[in-house]
């Protein structure tokens, strides 16, 4: 019989939920990257001042879709940790995911309304 102590790994309480909330800190970085990408793609195609009148639709679409994907990428991290927190029995495990959905939804709606306003006026 061994007298060596057994090492038990005890999960820290609320760790996954805390990581889910901390993953929201990735959004400022993703926002900056999305803005750089959204402005950089038209510039790469030679449109330094992109507008809906002078820039082809496919360049605007590529820039917009790329920026949206980059901005929404932290959702995957938040979803992962929220799912882990739910498996650990945390009652508010889905709350960070709800906040992420609202943030990404607002970003999409504001950009769509901005583009629509630019088309109409």
What does the model show?
It is built from 5 helices and no strands. The protein is mainly alpha-helical and 121 residues long. Helix 1 packs antiparallel against helix 4. The longest helix has 26 residues.
SSE blueprint and pairings:
Layout: H1 15-22, H2 26-44, H3 57-72, H4 74-87, H5 95-120
Helix pairs in contact: 1-4, 2-3, 4-5
Task: List key phrases describing it.
5 helices, 69% helix, 121 residues, mainly alpha
General shape: elongated
Task: Note the beta-strand portion.
Answer: under 5%
Helical run tally: 5
Mean pLDDT: 88
Summarize, please.
The chain is 69% helix and 0% strand. It is mainly α.
């Amino acid at each position: 019989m061994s007298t060596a102590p057994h090492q038990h790994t005890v999960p820290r309480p609320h760790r996954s939920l805390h990581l889910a909330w901390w993953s929201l800190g990735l959004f400022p970085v993703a926002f900056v990257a999305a803005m750089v990408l959204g402005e950089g793609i038209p510039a790469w195609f030679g449109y330094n001042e992109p507008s809906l009148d002078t820039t082809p639709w496919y360049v605007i679409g590529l820039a917009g879709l790329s920026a949206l994907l980059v901005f929404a990428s932290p959702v995957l991290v938040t979803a992962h940790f929220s799912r882990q927190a739910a498996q650990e029995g945390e009652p508010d495990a889905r709350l960070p995911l709800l906040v992420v959905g609202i943030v990404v939804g607002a970003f999409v709606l504001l950009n769509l309304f901005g583009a629509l306003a630019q088309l109409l006026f």
